[in-house]
Every structure is written in structure tokens, then in C-alpha cells.
Design brief:
The protein is α/β, with parallel strands linked by helices. The protein has eight helices and eleven strands. 35% of the residues are buried. Bound molecules: S-adenosylmethionine and zinc ion. The site of S-adenosylmethionine has 19 residues, from α3.
Length: 272
């Protein structure tokens, strides 16, 4: 059964053949890859909102090289720790992209936990659903999540946008919010190739209203890259990809071996 609800009238969905139908007869086709598209056409600001195919395929290829495996492991370890006493749990990876961290959670958490992923990019969700079959994926906006109030035991948000009021609405009392944001030295060695003076990322560590921060972890490690293709994928999945002009790219590729710092800020909040 899908945990997602009708985005138009917020009633439960029921599966009939390859369609999910709500009490008011709104129909949503289940794509052949198994995901649901619950993004109302009038909620789209562009024809294809969210990350595009180039960014998603670069992210998929880079993540496949396990450069961010320490982050995936740490996130799963923390969720496991906080949900250790739970028999059942409903979890959402908000802005899940092509599903790398969602799948890591599904692989490392008890199998009766329900793992769900949501992203506004249809390409991202298609990649995710095609590869990871035991996860419920849907195309929807993080600003209007098609899930019932107080339905989540944990919400994971890794480099993705969200709305404080939605976080408050979705997470159960005593439930958890885990966020990952870039810490000051993240990808420093790439950014110093672009900017004359690299501004270390400013950190905003304030808890969303109605939540208390219960943990903060700084995950910092050196990524050793020997393959130009992996380096290129890492660059192409970042927002500063377009700042690498041809000359800067050639200079960088001439180096043959790259040591790049990864610096993540992981925070866990608990709802009051
Ligand atoms: C930097 S990516 C991170 C993806 C994934 N969490 C990861 O770390 O691999 C940000 C993601 O947020 C998605 N996104 C952007 N705006 C969104 C919105 N309004 N609602 C849901 N997802 C959104 C993008 O499509 C993209 O997949
Ligand atoms: Zn409906």
C-alpha cells in the first residue's frame, strides 16, 4: 500500500490495477518503473522542474564510485541509532534525487521499516525507481508533500529544499529530522580553482521551530580521485559546474590525481 495521499483532496489512495485512485475519483497512473507522479500540473514552475538529466546522470555516476559512501553510512547509522526501539517506522527521504541515500537507508534499516523517496524531478525519480524496487518513490514538491499530517517517524533531507511548516506538519511528535548541509570546507579544492577568494560556506545551525537539536556531526574526509571521468561527474553534479570554463577545466584535468575535501554538516532534530 502506498503511504502517499491524493495531492488534490488529501484522501487516501487505493490501487486498482496500474492506477492509484482517491475517494473523490482522482486518478494517478503508476509508471512502469513503479513510481507515482503526484505533482499537479499547475504546481510546476517549468516543464521539467528540479535537477535535469545531465545533473542526475552525473550524480548517479559519481555516487556509484562511492565517493560519498562515508556520508551514506553515517546517515544510516544515525537513523538506526535513533529508531533502534521502533518495530515499525515510516521514513521519507525528501529531495531524494536518484535515490542513492534512500537505498542506503533501505539496505541498512530493518526490512519492515517503510522507506519513501520524493523529488520534484521526474528524471531523478525515474532513475531511482528503476534501480531500487523496495522503496516507494513519488514525483512531488517538497513544499506540498502528499503525505498525511503526523505520518513520519523520520524525515531525511540531504542537500534539498524544504519548508519549515511542512516539516512540522509531517513529522510525528518525538519524531526525527536529519539534515545534511555542506560544511565550510566542502569541495574546497574545487572551489579554489574557480574563485579568487573562496568563501567558506556560512552555516545556519538553528533548529526549525518546534524542534530541538539533539545531535550535530561534522563529517570530514579526503576524497582521492584518480579518474578524470569521476572528477568530471563530481563537478557536473554541483551548482558551480557552469563556472568551470574550458581553460580552468583543462588546468584541473592536467593534474591527473585530485585530493578533494568532503565536509558535511549532519544535524539531528527531534520534534517536541
Ligand atoms: C542537490 S540535489 C540532492 C539530491 C539527493 N538528496 C542527494 O544528495 O543525492 C537536490 C534535489 O532536490 C530536488 N528538488 C529541488 N527543488 C525541489 C522541490 N521543490 N521539491 C522536491 N525536490 C526538489 C532536485 O530535483 C534534486 O534532486
Ligand atoms: Zn483526490
Amino acid at each position: 500500500m502506498t503511504p502517499f495521499i491524493c495531492p488534490l483532496c488529501q484522501t487516501k489512495l487505493q490501487r486498482i490495477h496500474n492506477t492509484q485512485i482517491c475517494a473523490n475519483n482522482h486518478h494517478f497512473d503508476i509508471a512502469k518503473e513503479g513510481y507515482l507522479n503526484l505533482l499537479p500540473v499547475n504546481a510546476k514552475n517549468s516543464k521539467n522542474p528540479g535537477d535535469n538529466k545531465e545533473m542526475i546522470s552525473a550524480r548517479r555516476a559519481f555516487l556509484n564510485s562511492d565517493g560519498y559512501l562515508p556520508l551514506a553510512e553515517k546517515v544510516s547509522e544515525l537513523v538506526n541509532e535513533y529508531l533502534a526501539d521502533y518495530d515499525q517506522a515510516e521514513i521519507l527521504d525528501l529531495g531524494c534525487g536518484e535515490g542513492y541515500y534512500t537505498a542506503s537507508l533501505a539496505a541498512r534499516l530493518p526490512e519492515q521499516f517503510m522507506i519513501n523517496g520524493l523529488d520534484i524531478s521526474k528524471v531523478a525519480i525515474r532513475y531511482a525507481a528503476k534501480r531500487y524496487k523496495n522503496i516507494n518513490f513519488c514525483v512531488a514538491s517538497a513544499y506540498d508533500v502528499p503525505l498525511a499530517d503526523n505520518s513520519l517517524d523520520a524525515l531525511i533531507r540531504i542537500y534539498a529544499p524544504s519548508l519549515e511548516s511542512e516539516l512540522q506538519r509531517l513529522i510525528k511528535s518525538n519524531g526525527y529530522l536529519l539534515t545534511v548541509t555542506p560544511a565550510p570546507r566542502h569541495l574546497f579544492q574545487l572551489r579554489e580553482k574557480i574563485y579568487l577568494q573562496v568563501n567558506e560556506h556560512a552555516e545556519d545551525n538553528s533548529a526549525p521551530c518546534g524542534f530541538n537539536k539533539i545531535k550535530q556531526v561534522n563529517l570530514n574526509y579526503l576524497l582521492n580521485i584518480d579518474s578524470p571521468a569521476i572528477l568530471q561527474n563530481l563537478i557536473n553534479m554541483t551548482p558551480f559546474a557552469w563556472k568551470f570554463n574550458e581553460q580552468k577545466m583543462l588546468d584541473l584535468l592536467a593534474e591527473k590525481h585530485w585530493e578533494i575535501e568532503c565536509d558535511f554538516n549532519i544535524e539531528v532534530y527531534q520534534k517536541e
